[in-house]
């Protein structure tokens, strides 16, 4: 990966293990870790193909798989992908940079009905690659496929920039909320959940 992600450049070498341990602990404590998956599940038909882009430890993709969907997860951090494979067998978990995403080259030739970008993924990709990440994900969606994106509004990626990148990537903005449980959007919200769609025509 020629351009290191912010996940690499802005965190220490121990961060990945801390992240893995954190979500394993939250799961053991019974925390609700599937809110994003519930929303995505409501957007698609049963048995859909879903791309978990920036899949991390696999919590969202695993929850979608448990609901009967076929899930492929991709993350740039090999440690997180290894944890996903260990903790959540079933989905296909792959190491890869989203700015270079080419799943047909890795045997995933069918388009996806939906994709999800959770956990501030877009604010952790390599600087300047956000538009290309969105373009690559859009190219993996079927016409009329949906992309759900969530990230903090104070993390250095202004929403107007995101909206412009999404349009340039061939996506149409449909809805925006302040939380994954669909609280209404407001301009001072500290988090944005955006539903984008690849046009059918």
Would you spell out the secondary-structure blueprint of this structure?
Blueprint lengths: L5 H4 L5 H14 L6 H9 L5 E5 L5 H8 L3 E6 L2 H10 L4 E4 L16 E6 L12 H11 E12 L6 H10 L3 E6 L13 E7 L4
Parallel strand pairs: 1-2, 1-4, 2-3, 4-5
Antiparallel strand pairs: 5-7, 6-7
Helix pairs in contact: 3-4, 6-7
Average predicted local confidence, pLDDT: 93
Radius of gyration, in angstroms, nearest whole number: 16 Å
Going by helix content, strand content and strand pairing, the class is alpha/beta
Q: How is the largest sheet built, in terms of strand order? A: 3-2-1-4-5-7-6
- How far is it from the N-terminal to the C-terminal residue, by CA? 34 Å
Cα shape: globular
Main beta sheet: 7 strands, mixed
The topology string of helices and strands comes to: HHHEHEHEEHEHEE
Number of helical regions: 7
Low-confidence stretches: none
Q: How many β-strands, per DSSP?
A: 7
Proportion of residues in helical segments: 25-40%
Question: How much strand?
Answer: 15-25%
Quick structural summary:
The chain is of the alpha/beta class and 201 residues long. Helices cover 33% and strands 23% of the residues.
Structure description:
With 201 residues, this protein is α/β, with parallel strands linked by helices. It is built from 7 helices and 7 strands; from the N terminus they run αααβαβαββαβαββ. It has helices spanning 6-9, 15-28, 35-43, 59-66, 78-87, 130-140, 159-168; strands at residues 49-53, 70-75, 92-95, 112-117, 141-152, 172-177, 191-197. The chain has a 7-stranded mixed sheet, sandwiched between helices. α3 (35-43) crosses α4 (59-66) and α6 packs across α7. The longest helix has 14 residues, at 15-28. The radius of gyration is 16 Å and the shape is globular. The protein starts with 5 loop residues before the first helix and ends with a strand. The model has no long low-confidence stretch (mean pLDDT 93).
